[in-house]
Every structure is written in structure tokens, then in C-alpha cells.
Amino acid sequence: MSDLVTARLVLHPMTVGEAERVVAGEPGGGDRWAPEYPTGGDVFAAGRFLGICADTGDPQPFGTYEIRRREDGLAIGGLGFHAPVDPNGGVTIGYGIVPSAQRQGYASEALRALLEFARAQGVTCVKGDADHDNIASHRVMTAAGMRPAGQDERVRYFEISWADATPMSELSWYGVRCVFRHRELGVYEERLTLWRARSPDEAIGRGELEAREYCADLDGVEYAGFSEAYRMCGEPGEGAEVFSLMRESGLPAGEYVGRFFATGAERTGS
To answer: Which of 50, 56, 221, 234 is least surrounded by CB atoms within 10 angstroms?
Structure first.
């Protein structure tokens, strides 16, 4: 099958030979690997793919994909489906990016493309999970449109369903601005995150979830409980997902918001 191409990436469906080389950690003459590739997760995914191929045949298009950066052709990670589509139309996904290429929006970009592809293939539900302390992965899945779907003692679950959902291409982009207080530094942070959503309320819900996870990942930072959302005129550039403004102030949160935060937004929550 053909590669899936995004603005900055190529999602290449892995062949048996390519997967065998990943498991062995030995690139072939045509392979172009980033220095940290493959990771342990890539090796595990390639091994699982080989097991499925041996048991039931090549599962593509619901197999494993190598994430390649378009600008230099290097493999920087992988993503794909854990198994073919189940009888209810559902699949489970996984993904990973090498450390040197993280925090550049590549994982979200790749996952959005894979979700859109899955839906076009008739998939009705996609599920994923991440360890409780893997906040970055939680953000990747929510940024791609997946929603929290429970947790157990080990992981948090996320999913997206399209039974009655609006096509992703018809969702609007929203900017959600949340206020945080850095207690020890004596500063407020206005943090803007970007989301595809059906409404300002839905965008704020996702932004506030990310806000609470952001605080949980840092010491001495608290969400002040104020947020706003506004609809964007077009699509943001790939990789543009988070912006922050720091402002020193000794004002209480309510006074700070009243003074600096009134912008005529579509909706303001508190």
C-alpha cells in the first residue's frame, strides 16, 4: 500500500523485511534511521507485527508504520495498529517518537493522520492508552481528538468514536487560553493550546483537561480556574500547539483575570 503523507512526515507501512531489520537492530542499505531509532517500543511493535504476519498474514493497512521526517528522510519513530479491526469496527493504536525529535508536534501530526485514515477505512472506534505519568502522551491523544475513557491502576485510556461524530475535516480550530499561578516565582502564566472541536465549550473542556495534567506534571504550579476559547480563522501551522506568556503580578487570581484577561472571547469559564 502507499505511504501516508502529512505536512512534515511520511508514514510508511512497514514490510516484513523492514520489521525484521528493526527487531535485529541492523539497518539495510536503503534504511535511513535517526541515531536513536529504533527504540525499545519500535522493536516491540515490529515484533508484534511479525507475529501477526506469521499467524494470519500481513494485516496492512492495519499494521505498523514507520514515521519518517520528510525534510531528511530519517526514521524518527513508529505508530500503528495493534491488530486488525475487530468485529465491532474497533482498533487499538500505539505510537512513539525518538527522544531527540520529541516536543515538536510530530506525534500529534502522525496520530491525526492515522485517525483520519482509519475512519476512511470504515473504522468506527480507535482506542489507546498511556501510563499515568506519561503526560506528554495524554496530550498527544487529546490533541488528535481522542477523549479520556477511564483508567486502571496502570494506565489511562483514551478513545475516539465516529458512529455519529462530525468528520474531523469539518471541525473548527480553537485557541484555548488558561491561567496558571507559579507560586514560588510570583508570576502568572497564560498558556494557549490549540484544539479541533465542535464548539468553544468542547474546546475549553479539552483545554482544561490539559491544564490539570500540566499542573500535575510540575511542582508549585496551580490552575487558576479561568479559561477562554476563540475560534481561529484557519488552520495553525504544523507543530504549533502550545504558546505561553509569563507576567509577574502579586494580584489575587480574580483581580488578575479581571485586569488582563477580558478579551471578548466566545466563552469564558471559571
So the answer is: 234
Task: Tell me the torsion sign for CA atoms 232, 234, 240, 245.
Answer: negative
Which residues, 6+ apart, have CB-to-CB distance to 176 below 8 Å?
192, 193, 194, 195, 203, 204, 206, 207, 208, 227, 228, 229
CATH topology for 4-166 is Aminopeptidase (3.40.630)
Q: State pTM to two decimals.
A: 0.67
Contact indicator for 239, 227 with CB cutoff of 8 Å: no
Instruction: Confirm if 27 and 21 have CB atoms less than 8 A apart.
Output: yes
How many whole angstroms separate alpha carbon 68 and alpha carbon 76? 6
Q: Which residue has the cell 468514536?
A: 161
Residue 262 confidence class, pLDDT cut points 50, 70, 90: low
Domain ranges of the chain: 4-166, 171-269
